[in-house]
Design goal:
Layout lengths: L1 H7 L6 H19 L5 H26 L8 H25 L4
């Protein structure tokens, strides 16, 4: 998904992929250790991991590549809120599709 997002922008290819891979790994690791069935925890984790993805993106773009990037944290906070609200709708739908033994 990150590579697809990069292909649609004029930024360097692979940065979104890096950020989303790291955040996906952390999400899976946290999901094993804590109860993510609680909607409040899901909401908070989704919000925080979305912001972390944005922070990793900025870090790689500015620090590792040394490129200039126009960035607004207000926009990223709004995106994180939007992602969290969408997740509150999508996760229950995915839970219903889950195969239980």
């Amino acid at each position: 998904m990150g590579l697809f997002e990069d292909a649609l922008t004029q930024h360097a290819i692979g940065i979104n992929g890096i950020a989303k891979t790291i955040v996906g790994f952390l999400a899976a690791s946290v999901g094993i250790r804590i109860d993510v069935e609680n909607h409040t925890i899901r909401l908070a984790l989704n919000f925080l991991l979305s912001l972390l993805s944005s922070a990793i993106y900025v870090f790689v773009y500015r620090m590792l590549l040394g490129l200039n990037l126009k960035w607004s944290w207000i926009v990223e906070i709004i995106k994180a809120v939007d992602n969290s609200l969408i997740a509150m709708v999508v996760f229950p739908l995915l839970d219903r599709l889950q195969i239980r033994e």
